[in-house]
Amino acid sequence: MTLARARFAAKCEIEAEEHTSVVVLGDSPEGIPCPDYGVAARELLDGSADGADVDELERLRIETGTPRWGRELDDRVLPAEAGLDETAISFTKGCYPGQEPIARLRHRGKVNRRLRVLDVEQASPGDEIRFGEKAVGRITSAVPGVALGYVRAEVPDDAQLEVGAAKARLH
């Protein structure tokens, strides 16, 4: 826990907060709006409502191209590769850790790979994505019919790709 290692000017104790939550699809006045699924959804904390099916939520997340920590996001991924520079990064906020490389990438550079949605009959996390004879990426999340993966930026949108023995197309 990173926060527990921090030093504070005032004496304080840090404790993990324990709670449960469920995601409910549809418009509801209760809960926290959750844009990760491409449809109206709300997260209810410590609620007694029945949540959406986990498999359905995973499919919606993948189809929407929403990255997930531990799958599409870790300490080796630049926010712009996952598309977070368009949705979760402020370029007008004051200083924050990591601001310089993020701003430099936005204003001077380009990413070498991007998180993309692929239409593919069957895939598994870790499967290699191929364009002709060249490996151009890896699958990070998959459900039957659709997958997420990082694909080299130079791969054209209409490219015929392969994941294992299956044909794939960028969504």
What does this molecule look like?
By secondary structure, the protein is an alpha+beta fold. Helix content is 15%, strand content 30%. The protein has 3 helices and 9 strands. It has helices at residues 54-64, 84-87, 99-108; strands spanning 21-25, 32-33, 41-45, 113-120, 128-131, 134-143, 145-152, 160-163, 166-170. The strands form 2 sheets. A 6-stranded antiparallel barrel has the order 4-7-6-5-8-9. Strands 1-3-2 form a 3-stranded antiparallel sheet, with no helix packed on it. A hairpin with a 2-residue loop joins strand 5 and strand 6 (134-143). The longest helix has 11 residues, at 54-64. The relative contact order is 0.13.
Topology:
Blueprint (H helix, E strand, L loop, with lengths): L20 E5 L6 E2 L7 E5 L8 H11 L19 H4 L11 H10 L4 E8 L7 E4 L2 E10 L1 E8 L7 E4 L2 E5 L1
What does this entry show, briefly?
Helices cover 15% and strands 30% of the residues. It has 171 residues and is an alpha+beta fold. It starts with 20 loop residues before the first strand and ends with a strand.
Beta-strand residue fraction: 25-35%
**What's the gyration radius in Å?**
19 Å
State the end-to-end CA separation: 37 Å
Tally of helical runs:
3
Counted beta strands: 9
Mean pLDDT: 89
Total domains, how many? 2
Q: What is the architecture of the largest domain at the second tier of CATH?
A: Beta Barrel
| Structural class category | alpha+beta
The major sheet is characterized as:
6 strands, antiparallel, barrel
DSSP helix fraction: 10-25%
Shape: globular
Strand arrangement, major sheet: 4-7-6-5-8-9
| Low-pLDDT runs | none
* H/E topology pattern: EEEHHHEEEEEE
CATH hierarchy class name of the largest domain:
Mainly Beta
**What is the CATH topology classification name of the largest domain?**
Elongation Factor Tu (Ef-tu), domain 3
